[in-house]
UniProtKB/TrEMBL annotation:
InterPro entries: Divisome_Glycosyl_Hydrolase, GH, GHL10. It holds the Pfam family GHL10. Residues 43-60 have a biased composition (Basic and acidic residues). Residues 68-390 form the Glycosyl hydrolase-like domain. It comes from the Bacteria. This is Family 10 glycosylhydrolase. Gene3D superfamilies: Glycosidases. Keywords: Signal. Residues 35-63 are annotated as: Disordered.
């Protein structure tokens, strides 16, 4: 069995629900504190743009390609997924990563979300952060090659998107595996050693899970964190910038987050809760705007806790009774969607269908309603790691039913599975089951109309026996085979030029060129 996320014993209210983003068990609990601020009204309904264009044809037959994002999270912190342990030889680090790409190919995925900034560190040579200890085993020590460039090149070579996954404000991991609350235990060049005034310890030293954070309430710290992540956007060919939901720390034993001096200096007359939300809102908006200026084709998305607010607190909330991210971790996820500061959102719906505190079947349509009048795409965070646990998760068909439910809503344009190790372990055969039913063929990522569109001309195609070769100018290429009354997607390749061995020399094949945003050319044969 894969390593399961470690359990934090937080039991408030009636039940614990396992909903981890980076190997944590997050409590679902009854919360009664809240204000009732209402985000701005939505605009008009937007048409769904995720589907294949119906006017594209191969030998008179319409192209048929699923348009959905299919991804896995590859977690580096505490070596949950990769590498299997710190300090491996470079060649073994590479071999293990290629194994995850092989798994993605086997399951017909089209994206990986790789943890490149777990805790104020980096998986690339950075002017802002030390090398991550989870790679070499030594805080601040680099491997013998440019890991980020190599990962992206290998990922793209297999036709997959590479989403760089960042934790913006985490500064350390809990001891003993991490530095815990001790600044002096950080790498010598860690930014919090240079700027201890930016550091917050939460929960308090001596409390289980105590760690360092960058203070979200200090503007200079926020700007530094943004620049440290944007460095990767500038220097590497990433397809997406991805956050999970660690902004302000999840509450621990009712301990107050120790940001009093920053609030006194920067609060500007707001309540403490509104000020904290405003700090996170600024990070999200500023990252959106800066990414657009640097590389407008790079997608920006966040995977938040699955509950914004409960409807008992706010009529606009979901029919749930769990932790409210708006009130407890100051993440106004609904506002981010309505303001279209994101290109996609991946709520972590890590509960089963019928769970009384947070029912997947009720949360899914709530999130659909949030995104349906915006250009923000809805991808669902799926809890592969829960399969095999007691209760509903002892049923191998739970994820299968969830994916079937997703497909009832055109606004749901993808899923991301937590995590890679759980997909590989295939507990109870659940992955094989849903992959057979829903991921049996390749898929193209959905088009995002808000991103640049530069559709390339059709490629030039030649066929010699079972070898299909093409030359073109696209960022990627898609190969189709005519089968009956449609042309089905056979393969996706990165780059404008390519070749594949086709299954039937007598068959009819076409190739299309796609731009960075997956807009597709007319087919060539």
């Amino acid at each position: 069995m894969p390593r399961r996320p470690p359990v934090l014993p937080i039991v408030i209210g009636i039940v614990l629900a396992v909903v981890a983003g980076v190997g944590a068990v997050r409590a679902v609990w009854v919360s009664s504190t809240a204000s009732t601020a209402t985000p701005p009204a939505r605009g008009n309904e937007r048409a769904d743009r995720s589907q294949t264009r119906t006017d594209l044809r191969c030998d008179g037959k319409p192209l048929s390609a699923p348009r959905e994002l299919r991804g896995i999270w590859i977690t580096t912190v505490e070596n949950i997924d990769w590498p299997s342990r710190p300090g491996l030889p470079d060649e073994q680090i590479k071999a293990e990563y290629l194994g995850w790409l092989d798994l993605a190919g086997k399951r017909n995925l089209n994206a990986v979300f790789v943890h490149v900034r777990p805790s104020g560190d980096a998986l690339w040579p950075s002017a802002y952060a030390p090398w991550s200890e989870w790679i070499t085993g030594v805080r601040g020590k680099a491997p013998g090659f440019d890991l980020m460039r190599w990962m992206i090149d290998e990922t793209h070579a297999r036709g997959l998107e590479f989403h760089a996954w960042f934790n913006p404000y985490r500064g350390s991991q809990p001891a003993p595996s991490g530095a815990g609350p001790d600044i002096n235990a950080l790498a010598p060049d860690h930014p919090l050693r240079k700027h201890p005034e930016w550091a917050v310890v939460y929960p308090a030293a001596g409390t289980g899970g105590s760690r360092l954070h960058f203070n979200p309430g200090i503007p200079a710290a926020r700007e530094f964190v943004e620049d440290s992540m944007l460095e990767a956007v500038k220097n590497y060919d990433v397809d997406g910038v991805h956050f999970d939901d660690f902004f302000y720390q999840y509450p621990v034993n009712k301990q107050e987050y120790p940001d009093g001096p920053a609030y006194a200096q920067y609060g500007g007359g707001m309540s403490r809760a509104d000020w904290r939300r405003d700090n996170v809102n600024k990070l999200v908006q500023e990252m959106h705007d800066k990414i657009r200026k640097i590389k407008p084709w790079v997608k920006f998305g966040i995977s938040p806790f699955g509950i914004w607010r409960n409807d008992r607190t706010d009529p606009a909330g979901s029919p749930t009774r769990g932790l409210q991210s708006y009130d407890e971790i100051y993440a106004d996820t609904r506002l981010w969607v309505q303001r279209e500061w994101l290109d996609y959102i991946v709520p972590q719906l890590y509960w089963n269908i019928g769970f009384d505190v947070a029912d997947y079947a009720k949360l899914l349509p709530w999130w659909v309603d949030v995104v349906k009048d915006t250009d923000v795409q809805l991808w669902i965070g799926q809890a592969d790691y829960r399969v095999g646990q007691s209760g509903a998760w002892s049923d191998a068909g739970e994820l299968d039913r969830q994916l079937a439910m997703n497909r009832k809503y055109p606004q749901v344009t993808g899923s991301v599975h937590f995590s890679a190790k759980s997909m590989r372990s295939d507990a109870l055969g659940s992955v094989t089951r849903y992959a057979t039913n829903f991921y049996s063929t390749p898929a193209l990522p959905p088009v995002m109309a808000q991103l640049p569109s530069d559709i390339p001309p059709p490629p030039k195609v030649t066929v010699s026996g079972t070898k299909l070769t093409w030359r073109g100018k696209g960022t990627s290429s898609a190969v189709y085979q005519v089968r009956g009354d449609k042309a089905v997607l056979l393969a996706v390749r990165r780059g404008g030029d390519g070749e594949v061995t086709v299954p039937d020399a007598a068959g009819t094949y076409c190739v299309t060129a796609l731009d960075r945003s997956w807009n597709e050319s007319t087919p060539a044969r």
